[in-house]
Amino acid sequence: MKATKNTVIMLATLLLSITGFAQVKTNLSARDVVGAPSIIPLKLEPEAKLIVDAPLAAELAAGKVIIQYRTENLKIVPVYGEAGLKVSPRIGHLHITVDNLPWHWADASNQPIIIVGMAPGRHTILFELADTTHHVLEKQLITFEIPEAAANHPHH
């Protein structure tokens, strides 16, 4: 019985640690975590921000580009059109452009951007934070290098 109780406590602690509940979060208000309350008019909300990390280095060595991002004062959701401009807190999506190509894709998954099969060499990915009418609010350009050795790695 004691071994089972200890196992349950250990698993609960592990689960809480993984999900972040056991971590100490200082200086974060409720607004910092969940965003502005829906009763606040959009014109009073702070500007939307886009924070994009560098690609995961270990994955680049294998020829995979995995880039995490987050937003502030805008929630990424698959909603498009004029009516979305009236939603509070603010909503939108990303436009992703690879290597300055003349096309991009809209991403509303709120998940890391993952690209495989890129040729070795220098590449860029432009992240554009857009509102529901595709008006760009903020952008960030990420530059990275796929090593020559990555050409020999199989892609999954």
What's this entry about, in short?
InterPro entries: DUF6130. The protein contains three helices and nine strands.
Describe the structure in your own words:
With 156 residues, the protein is an alpha+beta fold. The chain has a single domain (38-152), classed as Sandwich (Immunoglobulin-like). The chain is built from 3 helices and 9 strands, in the order ααβαββββββββ. Strand 5 and strand 6 form a beta hairpin. The longest helix is centred in the first third of the chain and has 18 residues, at 2-19. The radius of gyration is 20 Å and the shape is elongated. Mean pLDDT is 84; it is low at 11-19. Keywords: Signal.
The ordered H/E elements are: HHEHEEEEEEEE
Per the CATH scheme, the topology name is Immunoglobulin-like
Structural classification: alpha+beta
Give helix % range.
10-25%
Number of helices: 3
Pfam family, one: DUF6130
Keywords: Signal
InterPro entries: DUF6130
Which characteristics define this entry?
156 residues, alpha+beta, Immunoglobulin-like, 5-stranded mixed sheet, two-stranded antiparallel sheet, 3 helices
SSE diagram, text form:
Blueprint: H1 2-19, H2 30-34, E1 49-52, H3 57-60, E2 64-67, E3 69-72, E4 75-76, E5 91-98, E6 105-107, E7 113-116, E8 121-131, E9 136-146
Parallel strand pairs: 4-5
Antiparallel strand pairs: 1-3, 2-7, 5-6, 5-8, 8-9
